[in-house]
Amino acid sequence: EVQLVESGGGTVQPGGSLRLSCAASGFTLSGYAMNWVRQAPGKGLEWVSRINSGVGRTIYADSVKGRFTASRDNAKNTLYLQMNSLEPGDTAVYYCEVVSTGRRGQGTQVTVSS
């Protein structure tokens, strides 16, 4: 069974950092392009980052470029999103998503507030 489990969210002050994890089971992450997407309160889904299959080339939304870094640990079959210099506008539920199927996990809440 394909399963994605996000974790690592929490509440941080502006300027703080968090690292999100997305543990995959039932398939091999490195064989699939994966997105990080987020949904802020009262808003639609926003694409944040993509990590491609194979060598894992990454691309980012302009709003997070230079602050967020996506990576993948093939041995652990886990995707990561390192988030630095967090801003209140980053407050959202974050999901990892299989690009080809749209399958997402349950999400993890990130709140940036002083």
List strands and helices in order, with pairings.
Blueprint (H helix, E strand, L loop, with lengths): L2 E5 L2 E3 L5 E8 L8 E6 L5 E7 L6 E3 L7 E6 L4 E6 L8 E7 L9 E5 L2
Parallel strand pairs: 2-10
Antiparallel strand pairs: 1-3, 3-8, 4-5, 4-9, 5-6, 7-8, 9-10
Concise overview:
β4 (34-39) and β5 (45-51) form a beta hairpin. The chain is 0% helix and 49% strand. It is built from no helices and ten strands.
Unreliable spans are none
Profile the largest sheet: 6 strands, mixed
Oligomerization category of the chains in this entry: single chain
Helix content: under 10%
Q: Percent of residues in beta strands?
A: over 45%
- Total number of helices: 0
Task: Provide mean pLDDT, rounded.
Answer: 97
Helix-strand makeup class: mainly beta
> Could you give the count of β-strands?
10
Distance between the termini: 40 Å
Instruction: Supply Rg.
Output: 13 Å
Describe the global form. globular
- With strands numbered from the N-terminus, the spatial order across the biggest sheet is 2-10-9-4-5-6
Give, in order, the helices and strands. Answer: EEEEEEEEEE
